[in-house]
Design brief:
By secondary structure, the protein is α/β, with parallel strands linked by helices. The protein is about 40% helix and about 25% strand.
Amino acid sequence: MSLLERLKAEIAVDGPISVADYMSRCLHDPVYGYYATRPALGEDGDFITAPLVSQMFGELIGLWAVETWRRLGAPKRFLLVEAGPGDGTLMSDALRAARLAPDFLDAAELWLVETSAPLIERQKAALADAPLEPRWTPSLSDLPDDAPIILIANELLDCLPARQLVRTAEGWAERQVGLDAQGNLAFGLAPVFDRRNEADKRVGAVAEISTAQQALGAQLGGVVARQGGAALLIDYGRDEPGFGDTLQALRRHETVDPLACPGEADLTVHVDFPAVLAAAWVAEASTVILAQGAFLRALGIEQRAAALKRTRPDQATRIDRQLARLIDDDQMGLLFKAACLHSAGFTPPGFEDAA
């Protein structure tokens, strides 16, 4: 029985489920979930992330980690963590750049937070020749709590489930996944649960609420506040409160109906960075955010691109194209955000103009 068939059977008996529950099943079902069975990254997969666009991305993140460590006072031992490491490319590129700072590598204890068995195998291959021996854990809660932490998470938050609330003429109702008259998966609305008539909320407006994103912000905020350090979160989403239906499914680099092939496509929503940062602030972390383009420019990506073109003049056009994809406003530069949750007393590198 496929996940689609199983969901249909369960909904027929138990009734509709929330969009958040549907996302969780599609992505993390232990038998049929996308990340448990068939995560497909890269040009030949379903989607491509910034580390796979260009080596420049991971290299700059590696140098960001080195400079963050120095601004923390160069502790003799610290945790270098990547949450949701994908296929290992980002950390591989980051550690290659970090070879310029052997004292940083001597102090680092490398941890990868991953639940997907197929991705762990790819990470092992990517990091086979890395200067640090990685350790894996399925949960942030299992990390040591006796050292400062420098954590990186690229395109992790967008995979965390979100509820969708829809404004109707009578008030707010929750969007759910149920069955239509033919027995196929279909979106519908639960009964209205909030009848307040707020004039500034137009009928049809969609509010996405991710308690999972907020919980991660609170958890990471608490960790950096207690242990010292910083958590760099890079993802696509909004940096101001807003409305909109951002649920999408990607398969072979094309958007598909989110209900068409559960477990066989990547499901995401835009990150609600204001809610994530607010949760971290309540946990006593300092927070700062920039658009990805501004952040990478501040780290020197344009200078790095120029250096690469000098050593690889035959690839200059390709490098320019990669650079544009990462930082241009009409590509990843504005839609993607770089947010940092950090302990008090220092400004994380790249965020000086936003602090």
